[in-house]
Amino acid sequence: MSGNKASRQKPCHHCKSRPASAPAGTSTIHYEKFWLYRHCSSLQQSDRQAQKAGQLFSGLLAMNVVFLGSAFLSSMIFNNVAITLADVWILLSILKVLCVCWIFYYLLGTRRQPHAVLYQDSHAGAIWIRGSVLLFGSFSVLLNVFHIGYSAVVIQCKSTLEILFPSIEILFICAQAYFLWNHSKDCIQVQHNFTRCGLMLTIATNLLLWLLAVTNDTLHTEIEGQLRQVEQRFAGNETALCPCPNTTICEVFQKGYILLYPFNTEFCLVCCSMLYVMWKNVGRRISHHHVPHVKSKFKFQGVVFGPLLGTIAVIIGVCVFMIYQVQATSSGPNHQVLVMYYSYYIVLLPLMSVGAVIGTVIHALEKRELDTVKNPTRSLDVVLFMAAALGQICMSYFSIVAIVATKPIKLLHSLILSHSVLLIFQNITQNVFIIDGLHRQPLMSPNKEEETKEDQIHEGHDQRRVSVLELGQEIRKVSLSYIHSYSHLNWKRRALREISFFLVLCNIILWIMPTFGAHPVFENGLEKEFYGYSTWFTIVNFGLPLSVFYRMHSVGGLLEVYVTA
């Protein structure tokens, strides 16, 4: 009787049925609703609207935090009496402590709930970007250690807070690096809104740390003052207001801090990109048909000229970099070294541009189908390529204006002008090539093609009762069709692989040189004299980390283009 009552019971129209593609056990999940969803009738239509409301609220939270921090930074720059650097550090320390608390809560609370992580985004958290988080995070920790050591040596004229703040940042860096290394692929299915707010708060904190690193030249100016005081001490003029008791230790901390400074800004940018992907994946349910059937693997086959030319470019670049660094650390880069440095770029950049243009033309000739599946990681990659390229393009245009205004009559000035123009063109052509390649569907090998076709035939075997003979004929037809198409596409695929591999090696050397200390844009003196020290310092610290991030991100994008070709 009870069974008949149950059978006559009307279904609940407010209950959401489990998606057909969801795994077993998800029928007990009740996806939470945003508070606006519960109280506003206009939003009571679908979970999609609740997701949009949650994203809007967390985005507004991040926007307000960024605006508040930007107001503090601007006040520090334009009115250093009312708002000091210590006030900015206090605000950032509070934000970092809140972020660390949320990360611990996510690891120990949210993620351990039932059905918390049913799906993982296979495109998110690639090994190269997680490795860069560990690399830049390690160097950022070392940077703060140097900062603590420098403050401890001159503690007589420093506040103890200048030791506390870097210590909090070390905790923040370690917690964030662990979190992103292990959980960057998560598509969290519980506590949507709290997770979104935590992720956005962490993104806003990283953006403020990046803005502080870009605009704050206090320690750099102080280090230069210390170095001048050391020179005056050797000359017999004891005028140091904050003398360093041990000159050798001070120089180690100073040089280490300046060398590692760009890594901290890189760490903030990489973390922002990974956290944004996690934020987009909150509450995301991935269907089975979105999962690719064939995973392309990196194989070093059929490429000769790309690795050869790229290796030559890397070897020459390492030699130029070592000569430049030796001169820069001894007596400063002289005229001949700067000419050699810019000449290397002027030879390499046109080759990279020509390769990217040829690759784009081959993509057009291939007529491969576009991959239209929704992919937050790829969408973010496109935005990052366009945004990160703006850093180098911005510096190049500032250099062009400075050189043209001063009338380039010297050889070095002409080289800097050519370098800036070629760099703009190379960034644009490479972006077009990579973005076009990322949106192409990968080609399958013959074995994978046969396996896929065989699986499709086996799926319908029970319905159509396909005989073994018919199965063999189908596989033979697919093999002959693939061999025919491969003979026509072989040279195109090989050319794409050669170009991609060459560009990978070139971007690696162009990432190494500015990352580990070669900064002629600041050391040639032309732009610094034209715009002033503080202005050009801000421009370089805005553009240089983006440029380094662009080269590192390009390596990952080009490797994906290489694999899919």
UniProtKB/TrEMBL annotation:
<feature type="transmembrane region" description="Helical">
    <location>
        <begin position="56"/>
        <end position="77"/>
    </location>
</feature>
<feature type="transmembrane region" description="Helical">
    <location>
        <begin position="300"/>
        <end position="324"/>
    </location>
</feature>
<keyword id="KW-0407">Ion channel</keyword>
<keyword id="KW-0472">Membrane</keyword>
<feature type="transmembrane region" description="Helical">
    <location>
        <begin position="128"/>
        <end position="151"/>
    </location>
</feature>
<feature type="transmembrane region" description="Helical">
    <location>
        <begin position="530"/>
        <end position="550"/>
    </location>
</feature>
<feature type="transmembrane region" description="Helical">
    <location>
        <begin position="411"/>
        <end position="435"/>
    </location>
</feature>
<keyword id="KW-1003">Cell membrane</keyword>
<feature type="transmembrane region" description="Helical">
    <location>
        <begin position="344"/>
        <end position="362"/>
    </location>
</feature>
<keyword id="KW-0375">Hydrogen ion transport</keyword>
<dbReference type="InterPro" id="IPR004878">
    <property type="entry name" value="Otopetrin"/>
</dbReference>
<feature type="transmembrane region" description="Helical">
    <location>
        <begin position="89"/>
        <end position="108"/>
    </location>
</feature>
<feature type="transmembrane region" description="Helical">
    <location>
        <begin position="382"/>
        <end position="405"/>
    </location>
</feature>
<feature type="transmembrane region" description="Helical">
    <location>
        <begin position="258"/>
        <end position="279"/>
    </location>
</feature>
<protein>
    <submittedName>
        <fullName>OTOP3 protein</fullName>
    </submittedName>
</protein>
<feature type="transmembrane region" description="Helical">
    <location>
        <begin position="163"/>
        <end position="181"/>
    </location>
</feature>
<dbReference type="Pfam" id="PF03189">
    <property type="entry name" value="Otopetrin"/>
</dbReference>
<keyword id="KW-0813">Transport</keyword>
<keyword id="KW-0406">Ion transport</keyword>
<comment type="similarity">
    <text>Belongs to the otopetrin family.</text>
</comment>
<feature type="transmembrane region" description="Helical">
    <location>
        <begin position="193"/>
        <end position="213"/>
    </location>
</feature>
<feature type="region of interest" description="Disordered">
    <location>
        <begin position="1"/>
        <end position="24"/>
    </location>
</feature>
<feature type="transmembrane region" description="Helical">
    <location>
        <begin position="499"/>
        <end position="518"/>
    </location>
</feature>
<feature type="compositionally biased region" description="Basic residues">
    <location>
        <begin position="7"/>
        <end position="17"/>
    </location>
</feature>
<keyword id="KW-0812">Transmembrane</keyword>
<dbReference type="GO" id="GO:0015252">
    <property type="term" value="F:proton channel activity"/>
</dbReference>
<keyword id="KW-1133">Transmembrane helix</keyword>
<dbReference type="GO" id="GO:0005886">
    <property type="term" value="C:plasma membrane"/>
</dbReference>
